[in-house]
Each structure stands twice: as C-alpha cells, then as structure tokens.
Amino acid sequence: MGSAPLRVAVVGSGIGGLTAAIALQAKGFEVEVFDQASELSEIGAGVSLGGNGMRVYDALGIGQAVRDVASNLQRIEFHHWKTGDIFYEHPMGDWYDEKMGGPFLGAHRADLHQVLLAGFDGEPHLGKRCAAVNEAPDGVELEFADGTKAQADIVVGADGLRSAVRHHVTGPDEAVFSAMSCFRGLVPIDKVPGGDKFGLTFFLGPNRHLVVYPVRGGELINFVAYVPDPEWTLESWSSKCEPADAVAAFEGWNDTVTTMLGNVEETGRWALYDREPLRKWSTDRVTLLGDAAHPMLPHAGQGSNQAVEDSAALAEYLTTDGLSVAEALQRYEHLRKARTRKIQMGSRGNAACFQLPDGPATDERNARLVSLPDNVAWIHGYDVYADIRDSLS
C-alpha cells in the first residue's frame, strides 16, 4: 500500500484504542491517539483478560507486563446466593493456559491502562472530543469540539458505545437499555471473607448475580453486582452511589457477599446498554473497533478481549500485500463481524441464565455447567492470527 508510512488517527484511548495504536505502530504506521477526556484518571474497576486476548498481547511484546500487574485466576467457582456453597468449580491456572493458549487474568483497569500507555510510543491528545469526521478520497479530517482539526489517512473509531465516529460510518442509532444496572467496587482482600481463595467467582441468585475476582496481584477484590433496575438509566463510569445501596439490593444473601459490599469505600453504579449488531463497520478510510463496533453487555466477560482481537486483525489486514486501505478495512470487518455478533448476542442471554430463582430451572442450569469449559473454548481458545492466515490463504 505504498512506501510512505500511513497516518492513522485513533479516536479513543481506552483499552481498544491503545491496543490498536500499539499494534499499528508495530506495523510501521504513524499513529496519533485522541480522547475527549481532559485527564486520564484512575477508574476503580476490574477487567478480565482471557487466552484469546493475551495471545495478542504476547504477540505485541507486552504480555509479561500485563501479567506483572494482574492476578492469574486459578479456578472458576459458582456459589449459591443464600448459602454461599459451591455448586460447580473447575481448575483454571495451568489447565486454562494450556488449553486456551494463554492465562485468564483479572486486572485493575487502571493498571492495564498504564501498561498500554507505556507500550504506546507517544502521548494521547486529551480534551479532544470528536465533533465531525470529514472523509475524502485522499484522506480524512477530524474536527474537535475545541475548534482544532487533525488530518489522517485512516481513522479508527475506538470511542465506545456512544461513538462519534460510528455516526459517520452508519448514521444515527440508539443504544439499547438492558433494564439492568451494576454496582462495581474494589475491596482490600483482607476485608472479604475467604477472599484469598477467590478465583473467577460467581454468586448466582434470583434476579441478581455477582462476578468477583482478585486484581493487582491479589491485593484487591473486584466485584460487579448486577440488579434489574429500569429506573437507573445513567451510563457513566464515574457515576457513584452509596455502598449501602448495594448492600440493601443484596439483603438476605450470604455473609461473604454482604460483608464485601459493605466494606467498599466507594461504589460505582451504572446502567447497562448495548446496541443492535451493525450491518456496516467501515467506509473507505474509516472503521470501528471495540465497543464502537460491537458494544456488548458484560455477561460473557469479553468486551475488552474482543477489542484486543479487533486491534490485531486491523493491523494485520492493513499491512497485507495487495490490499488497498478500503479493501483491508472490508476484510477486517468481514472477519470480525460474525464472531463479535455471536458473542454480543450470547452476552445478552447470559444474564437471564445467571439470575434464575431456585427450582427446576436452576437445577437444569447447574447440571449444564459440567460442559462449560468445552462450551466456551471457541471464545477463549480463539487464535485471531490463525484465523487471519486462513482468510488470506
């Protein structure tokens, strides 16, 4: 696609945007990253990375740095909401690493973000809210709300669920509210009963469930507690609530849950949205990545991993001999669309499965968990690089 390095503007400096920037720089592109935030502040939330995502970070040379700031989760456990008893467990650790091609890690989002910032050769341009994308046959101009502009050969929209870049690609659309919100927080491990034994831990109960795992090398326990709530519609990572609200929402649950929820210093709360799968991700010079392309509810733990896979695929296709930029973006979109759609739809369905009342339906679900490792292998054991090679052969 020519000898001069192409200029790529990445809109969004989250996990997907920075991973894409690193992957593109590794392929020789000139990359600038723009973000609407005025500062990159620490977000008190965890993120899970599976073998499919870690395969990419290993290929980019930052896998060990990610491991160094994360917790390697040694098992998966499902607990009864009231008694706390384990009704299904399975080893992870070495078993998972060997089967899925990488570890399953729990990381503090801010720690992962620092690794990615260190891996990117440059500094994101902050305070740059994208207001317009003007595309021409020979390039793209970005207009920002502060009146400044930037020029690029390619634009990557990694600016999340409410992406401004997506509006350029697909036109207006509406977020889909799940009628569910989540409480999120981080608790020192010594304030969580049995927290030193947690791996990837689920507490499942009627109309509610929690996902819990250690981060920061086991220093902290991250929890995400999901509740039905058609009234709470605020979708903001900075939105807070009183810890007592979470405790009240899980009244009658086992002591581990209520003690954990009550010992957090600060509780975040936000509504859960996604969007209908897009029919189109790309124009000739603009494409989407991560939540901007396929926002998904968190019930499969794959939002960040899918953005990481996207980043690898985009960089590989843009450096494939014989493909124009437009052709490369179409190949990227074609490869990624079916897989992300399937995971996106599966994430919607998981919440109902996790929140069944005690009874025959719960017994049936619990029996099916025996086959869980095989059922998720297509997600966690996926090799995006092998898939790209197959698509080009």
UniProtKB/TrEMBL annotation:
Residues annotated as signal peptide: none
Is the keyword Transmembrane in the record?
no
Residue ranges occupied by any FAD-binding domain in the UniProt entry: 7-343
Q: Name the coenzymes or cofactors required.
A: FAD
Question: Which Pfam families does the entry mention?
Answer: FAD_binding_3
Q: Which InterPro entries match?
A: FAD-bd, FAD-dep_Monooxygenase_BioMet, FAD/NAD-bd_sf
Q: Which UniProt keywords apply?
A: FAD, Flavoprotein, Monooxygenase, Oxidoreductase
Gene3D superfamilies associated with the record: FAD/NAD(P)-binding domain
Q: Which GO terms describe its molecular function?
A: monooxygenase activity
Say which domain of life the source belongs to. Answer: Bacteria
Protein's UniProt name: FAD-dependent monooxygenase
Which classification does the entry list for the species? Bacteria, Bacillati, Actinomycetota, Actinomycetes, Micromonosporales
